[in-house]
Amino acid sequence: MTGPARLLVHTLKYRYATAIAPTMGRLLDDALPGLSFDACFPVPLHPSRQRERGFNQARQILRHTALPPPSPGLTRIRRTDRQVGQRLAERRSNVAGAFAYRGPSLSGMSVALFDDVVTTGATVSECATALRDAGAREVWVIAFARASYQPGSHEPIED
Question: What is the pTM of this model?
Fold first, then answer.
């Protein structure tokens, strides 16, 4: 992830500038080809991380898109280490079993899973498994940005 996308994501996530979320939502809408979903789930933060940051960056952006409003039920059931600097296997292990869906059945539904940045896909893969286990017919992953994966990098980008 480089250029303006990187600047926007880092400003929202690490400088806590939630005022840019509407702009990010509008930019994302311009890139979406009018997709339709029964529900949309932001990748959840662990409650302790959300308290630290004060907001969930994926939820902030999602609220400002034409996608369905954030649906409840997808939760992070255990705290995980930050993904920054971890290798692919470590990232997968770090988030394995970290998410659960606790809500009404998603049987037959087409749902979107939304995150600010996808790097290796380890986090969204675990979230998608929880949504499919709850009956979702299909899970689409939508992200504001895609970061290139560089093993061992210590750039402040999370998956």
Answer: 0.88
Looking at this protein, which amino acid is placed at residue 36?
A: S
Ramachandran area for residue 14 (φ above 0: left; ψ -120 to 50: alpha; else beta): alpha
- Alpha helices, H only, the chain: 3-14, 21-31, 47-53, 57-62, 88-95, 122-133
- 93-108 pLDDT, tens per residue? 999 999 999 999 999 9
- Classify 152 in phi/psi space as left (phi over 0), alpha (psi -120 to 50) or beta: left
Tens of pLDDT, residue by residue over 34-90, are 889 999 999 999 999 999 999 999 999 999 999 999 999 999 999 998 887 788 889
How far is Cα 140 from Cα 41, in angstroms, rounded to an integer? 10
Domains identified in the chain and CATH numbers: 3-146 (3.40.50)
Residue in 84, 147, 148, 71 with CA at minimum distance from that of residue 113: 71
